[in-house]
Amino acid sequence: MIREKTSEDLDNWLTQASGCKIPEIERFAISLRGDYDAVKAALSLEWSNAQTEGQVHRLKLIKRQMYGRASFDLLRRKVIGFSDTS
């Protein structure tokens, strides 16, 4: 469904997953039902916020790595991508 962007099978999959007797998959199906409209839209629409999410993840990673260890100038260089060592 995800690779082919087909939302038609979502309801059937959720029904099967909810009764599969594997607690992790059942909880996952329940959480997807909680945000059903967004999941359905993600499977059927061509738009994606993956690029934005990737950049947010990168910024949070830099923040965690450098927390309390770097000046603002060094953080700025890491975020913007400067490799100038002069």
Please tag this protein with its features.
single chain; 86 residues; mainly alpha; elongated
Give the arrangement of secondary structure elements.
Blueprint: H1 10-18, H2 23-34, H3 36-44, H4 50-66, H5 72-80
Helix pairs in contact: 1-2
Plain-language structure description:
The chain is mainly alpha-helical and 86 residues long. The chain is 65% helix and 0% strand.
- Count of alpha/pi helices: 5
Shape: elongated
Q: Helices and strands, in N-to-C order?
A: HHHHH
Computed over alpha carbons, the radius of gyration is: 20 Å
Oligomer: single chain
Average per-residue pLDDT, rounded, comes to 86
CA(first)-CA(last) distance = 50 Å
Beta strand %: under 5%
SS class: mainly alpha
How many E-type strands?
A: 0
Largest sheet, in brief, is: none
The share of residues in helices is 55-70%
Low-confidence stretches: none
Quick gist of this model?
The protein is 65% helix and 0% strand.
